């Protein structure tokens, strides 16, 4: 038995020893943070499924190997995309907010999502990151995506919604100092007047994801590649996301959104294994087959391998994520030779047994702040390495 596996029972015992202090709620409550409304704000990233999610079993993958060429392999190379100047975010409206029972609210020309803090769940998330560091023996970074309500400056609104900086500061305090907890809030807040979040969808835009990437890059000693070095395109100038279905408010249909994309500077290929077990090949992590949020790494899939020939092949990272990670991941191609992306909602089996042979230099957790304050996500991540949390 190798050394990594010998300490699993001991470390699990250490995790379980913290259980009484966590005072976990009943099983029907543990998938949402304390004091959070009954309906999840971020249903598509609820591990149990939801709008737009596929719950089909995934095909086990031990080694990607060669894959058949998919029609998506003819995606345009960056030089084929016409650059378009970025557009700033809307001005702060002088209006009241229309709050919904599930935590969503309409304010000005956008639907916003709130964040909620649950200390016992955030503590499990922090312990999970430390466990992965000890198990894989490499650098581990935690990147928590704030939600759109962080950009609001109107005191009438900010006085009645949770402060996401305060939540993230509390989460950082729970995180072991050996884990790299990236400061995403300060990275984004200075750009709050830009188009960081969709108006009709719960995700951040790729512009928002970029600022988190830049903060991550600096935190691990990389030089962030500036947006001005990448080729910019509007993939869809009439995008409509999840918020109309959730609010059923006709006003949401009038809100304007677009899918902006920045094509990385380095050529790369991407192999995707879908939840249905289909293998697809692309020549970019920004695909031409879809002009919704799925344009980024082809959406949520069981397994994704991105290879960048011009980067050192022994510089290799494992990304564990919810869908907020999708817009972030293409920026990693500026630094890593190999990028393995695993979505624990889709993958089955033990990812340590399957992928430890890749000798990761980095493991990166990317979750939105709501997911990181739920019990379900650390339970998924620990289950992915063979540890069953209660």
Notes on the structure:
24% of the residues lie in helices and 15% in strands. It starts with a helix and ends in a 7-residue tail after the last helix. It has an eight-stranded mixed β-sheet with strand order 5-4-13-11-12-10-8-9, with helices on both faces. A three-stranded antiparallel β-sheet has the order 1-2-3, with no helix packed on it. The protein is globular, with a radius of gyration of 20 Å. Helix 4 (119-136) crosses helix 6 (164-174) and helix 4 packs parallel to helix 12 (376-383). It has one domain. The protein contains twelve helices and 13 strands. Helix 10 links the parallel strand 11 and strand 12. The protein has 390 residues and is α/β, with parallel strands linked by helices.
Radius of gyration from the alpha-carbon trace, in angstroms: 20 Å
Q: Residue-averaged pLDDT, rounded?
A: 82
Percent range for β-strand residues? 15-25%
Give start-end ranges of low-pLDDT stretches: 1-90
Number of separate structural domains: 1
Query: What would you call the shape?
Result: globular
Q: What distance separates the N and C termini?
A: 25 Å
| Beta strands, count | 13
The biggest sheet, with number of strands, parallel, antiparallel or mixed sense and barrel status, is: 8 strands, mixed
């Amino acid at each position: 038995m190798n050394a990594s596996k010998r300490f699993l029972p001991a470390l699990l015992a250490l995790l379980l020893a913290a259980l009484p202090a966590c005072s976990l709620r009943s099983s029907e409550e543990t998938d949402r943070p304390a004091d959070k409304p009954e309906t999840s704000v971020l249903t598509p990233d609820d591990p149990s499924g939801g709008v737009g999610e596929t719950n089909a079993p995934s095909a086990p993958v031990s080694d990607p190997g060669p894959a058949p060429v998919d029609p998506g392999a003819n995606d345009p190379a960056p030089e084929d995309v016409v650059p378009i100047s970025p557009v700033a975010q809307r001005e702060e409206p002088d209006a009241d907010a229309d709050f919904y029972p599930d935590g969503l609210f309409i304010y000005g020309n956008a639907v916003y999502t709130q964040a909620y803090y649950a200390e016992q769940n955030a503590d499990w998330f922090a312990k999970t990151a430390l466990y992965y560091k000890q198990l894989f023996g490499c650098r581990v970074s935690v990147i928590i995506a704030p939600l759109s309500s962080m950009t609001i400056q109107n005191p009438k609104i900010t006085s009645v919604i949770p402060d996401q900086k305060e939540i993230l500061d509390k989460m950082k305090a729970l995180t072991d100092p050996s884990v790299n907890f990236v400061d995403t809030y300060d990275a984004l807040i200075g750009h709050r007047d830009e188009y960081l979040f969709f108006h009709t969808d719960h995700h951040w835009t790729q512009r928002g994801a970029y600022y988190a990437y830049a903060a991550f890059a600096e935190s691990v000693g990389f030089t962030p590649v500036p947006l001005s070095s990448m080729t910019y395109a509007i993939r869809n100038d009439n995008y409509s996301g999840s918020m109309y279905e959730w609010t059923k408010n006709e006003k949401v249909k009038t809100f304007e959104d677009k899918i902006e994309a920045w094509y990385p500077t380095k050529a790369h290929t991407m192999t995707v294994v879908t939840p249905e077990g289909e293998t697809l090949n692309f020549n970019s992590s920004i695909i031409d087959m879809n002009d919704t949020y799925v344009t980024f790494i082809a959406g949520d899939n069981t397994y994704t391998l991105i290879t960048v020939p011009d980067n050192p092949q022994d510089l290799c990272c494992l990304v564990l994520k919810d869908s907020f990670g999708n817009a972030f991941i293409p920026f990693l191609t500026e630094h890593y030779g190999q990028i393995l992306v695993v979505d624990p909602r889709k993958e089955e089996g033990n990812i340590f047994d399957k992928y430890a042979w890749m000798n990761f230099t980095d493991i990166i957790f990317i979750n939105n702040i709501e997911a990181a304050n739920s019990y379900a996500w650390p339970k998924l991540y620990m289950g992915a390495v063979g540890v069953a949390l209660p």
